[in-house]
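Long-time lurker, finally posting.

We've been working with Fe2+/Zn2+ uptake regulation protein (Hyella patelloides LEGE 07179) and I want a structural starting point before designing mutants. I don't trust myself to interpret raw outputs, so I'm hoping someone here can both generate the structure tokens and explain anything notable. Sequence follows.
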Amino acid sequence: MSIRQPSSHKTVFDFLKQLQREIDAQDLYLELQRRGKKIGLATVYRALKTLHKQGSIQERMSTNGKSLYSATSFHQQHHLNCLHCQRSIVIDNCPINGKLDRWFQSQEFKVYYHTLEFFGLCTDCQEQEAFRQS
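Top reply, 14 upvotes:
Generated this for you. Predicted structure of Fe2+/Zn2+ uptake regulation protein:
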């Protein structure tokens, strides 16, 4: 017997699949409102929580503390995050993907997605810091 998901879950999931980028919950809510979808902010948060638990969407924390969501079918991105200017630079190729896949298989663990985040200073902020120190 399969359990049907509420239509709000489908609305949120379909939007994230179509969007093909990360978005925070409040911006997602506002965009759904602009598109004429009758869905409340609390419902958006509940749908995101459920979809994340199911592995249908991924969540990552931005440098400013916001959760960003995207469909797991969206190309997995990894980031270099600058703690000073809050810029997030996409790493195009995951440097550990093959090793992780083999390790997950050896652990008999099904992975829906993974994240790889590095935190530090971007080139511009490093230069500004060096200038201030001289």
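Before you design anything, note these points.
The beta strands are 23-24, 57-61, 67-71, 78-82, 88-91, 117-120.
The chain has a mean pLDDT of 85.
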